[in-house]
Design goal:
This protein is of the alpha+beta class. Helices cover 33% and strands 26% of the residues.
C-alpha cells in the first residue's frame, strides 16, 4: 500500500508560535515513517511558509530550524489538487498531500482561518472544521453554547476594547458590581494561558483587562472557582470517546504560560485524584460539549472540580491541544491505552473519514 503524504504544519503568526514548535518536534519524532511521507512545513512569525529540510527536529524549539540549508519556500495551494508547492530558484515542485496535521495553536491556526484554507483546497485535515474551530477559539461564543445546553460554568462578563477605552472606570465598576475578588481575566481568543491574569483588587483588575485586550478586542472576566483543574482528552468524529481524567497542579497562583512551558513548578496527576462519580461527570460533559460545538478529530476539554462537593464546572475547550512531550492530550490517551504513534494514526484516519 502506498504511503500517505502528511503535511505537518507548525509555527504561525501567533503568540503561541513557540509552543507550536515544541508540539511539532514531538509529533515529528513520533510519527510512523513506514506509513507516511512527512512534509514538515513551518510558518514563521512573519508569515513566511518554509518546508523544513532537516531531520533534527530539536532545531525547531531551539529556533535554529530556519537556518537549515535544505529549506525551501513553500505554500499550500488553495487550488484543488495542487497540494504543497515548494520553490527553488525559478522552479516550482508540486507534492501531493493526502492530509494535513495542523499544530498551529491560537490565532490563524486554531480559529478556523487555516481550516478554511484547507477546506477550499479540498485537503483533509486533523481536527475540527471552520465553525467548530471558530466557536471554540472565541471563549465568549463557547460560553454561549455551554449555556444553551445547560452545562455549568463560571459566571462571566464580556469586556470589549472599545468600551474599556471609552470608560475604564465604568467597566471596572460593572465588574465589581457582579463579582467578588479574586477574578480571572483572559483574552477571548488565545490559548496556552497567554494574556491571562488573576486580579485580587481594583488596580490589578484594570491592569489585567489592559493586558488581555492587547491580545484580543474582547476580554472575559470570570469568577474564581475554588477547585482542582481537571483536563480530559476527546477523540473521534460521530462517536467521540473521552480519555481518563488528569489533574494539573500548577504549583503557582494559577496554570499560566510560565507554569505550562517555562518553569518546572507544575505537576500532572493521571488519573486525577477525584471520585469515580466526578470523573464520569467530567467525561460525559466533555463529550456533550464536543458534540454541541460540532467538533471532529480531537479536542481537550478543561474543567474545575470544586473542593466542596466535587461540583463539575466547565472551563474551556482547545481544538488543537498541545502535543509537546509534557502535554496532557497525548499523555491522557497514553494512560488510556493509546500510545503516542497510534494516537497520530487514529487522528489521521479520522481526518480522512467523510
Amino acid at each position: 500500500m502506498a504511503k500517505l503524504s502528511v503535511c505537518v504544519l507548525f509555527g504561525g503568526v501567533s503568540p503561541e508560535h513557540d509552543v507550536s514548535l515544541r508540539s511539532a518536534e514531538s509529533v515529528l519524532n513520533q510519527i510512523n515513517r513506514e506509513k507516511y511521507n512527512v512534509f514538515p512545513v513551518g510558518i514563521t512569525k512573519n508569515g513566511d511558509w518554509v518546508l523544513f529540510g532537516g531531520t533534527d527536529y530539536s532545531m525547531l524549539p531551539a529556533g535554529t530550524w530556519l537556518e537549515h540549508p535544505a529549506n525551501r519556500r513553500a505554500a499550500l495551494s488553495p487550488v484543488r489538487g495542487q497540494g504543497l508547492l515548494t520553490f527553488e530558484n525559478d522552479c516550482v515542485v508540486r507534492e501531493r498531500i493526502d492530509v494535513v496535521l495542523p499544530l498551529i495553536h491560537g490565532e490563524n491556526g486554531e480559529d478556523g482561518s487555516l481550516q478554511g484554507l484547507l477546506q477550499v483546497a479540498g485537503i483533509p485535515f486533523v481536527g475540527p472544521g471552520v465553525a467548530a474551530s471558530a466557536v471554540s477559539m472565541d471563549k465568549t461564543l463557547t460560553k454561549l453554547v455551554a449555556d444553551s445546553i445547560g452545562v455549568e460554568q463560571a459566571k462571566w462578563k464580556l469586556v470589549t476594547r472599545l468600551a474599556f477605552a471609552r470608560d475604564r472606570k465604568a467597566v471596572c465598576d460593572a465588574v465589581e458590581a457582579e463579582f467578588e475578588y479574586p477574578v480571572f481575566v483572559k483574552p477571548a481568543g488565545t490559548g496556552s494561558s497567554v494574556g491571562i491574569s488573576k486580579a485580587k483588587n481594583r488596580e490589578a483588575l484594570e491592569a489585567a483587562i489592559e493586558t488581555a485586550l492587547k491580545f484580543d478586542s474582547k476580554a472575559l472576566v470570570e469568577e474564581f472557582i475554588d477547585g482542582k483543574e481537571i483536563e480530559v482528552a476527546v477523540l473521534g468524529n460521530e462517536t467521540p470517546m473521552a480519555s481518563i481524567c488528569g489533574e494539573i497542579d500548577s504549583g503557582a497562583e494559577f496554570y499560566d504560560y510560565e507554569a505550562k512551558y517555562i518553569t518546572d513548578t507544575s505537576r500532572a496527576y493521571i488519573p486525577a485524584p477525584i471520585s469515580d462519580a466526578a470523573a464520569e461527570r467530567v467525561r460525559e460533559t466533555a463529550v456533550k460539549i464536543y458534540r454541541a460545538i460540532g467538533c471532529r478529530g480531537m479536542s481537550r476539554v478543561d474543567f474545575f472540580v470544586t473542593y466542596d462537593g466535587e461540583k463539575v464546572v466547565f472551563n474551556e475547550i482547545n481544538t488543537i491541544p498541545g502535543f509537546t512531550s509534557i502535554s496532557m492530550y497525548p499523555k491522557l490517551f497514553e494512560a488510556s491505552g493509546i500510545a503516542y504513534p497510534d494516537l497520530i494514526d487514529q487522528l489521521i484516519e479520522l481526518a480522512l473519514q467523510p
